[in-house]
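To: structure subgroup
Subject: Chain for Friday's discussion

All,

I'm putting the inputs and outputs inline so they're searchable in the archive.
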Amino acid sequence: MAEELLIKKYPNRRLYDTSSSRYITLEEIREMVVGGTPFRVVEKKTNEDITRNTLLQIIMEHESGDGEPMFSIDLLIRFIRNYGENTQDSFKSYMEQSMEFFSQQQGVLSEQLSKSATGNPSELLMDMGKKQLDVWQQTQKQFFDAMTGKPKK
């Protein structure tokens, strides 16, 4: 596994990559995320970890940019409603599991499409869709069980 890069944020809001000894942009940090490069962003003066804030800043820039936003107003409202509620931990867990499942399925789809010459592509997609539905239903059940206090099986 690659070594975690240390990015320092200076008071002038510039980001400094300590491994390459140069200033970088938020776009370069986004490229690190996409490329799977581990990194941590810290405030230069206090050494406070601000990685999360930096990632939120990248999301904000992309959501307010020229392209099509990923989050609808309705989805953002639903996110906000869960802050501070007793369901916040369950919602967070549900979202993390959903994103993990989505990432796994992207990998499976890519793999299946590369092997499509050996099988019927429509059958592969139908099989994958059934597997997605099964996992999605299981994830929803866990979420609702956690909200209602039912024990895990």
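Points worth raising on Friday:
The chain has a mean pLDDT of 83.
Residues 5-63 form a domain with the MutS, DNA mismatch repair protein, domain I fold (CATH 3.40.1170).

D.
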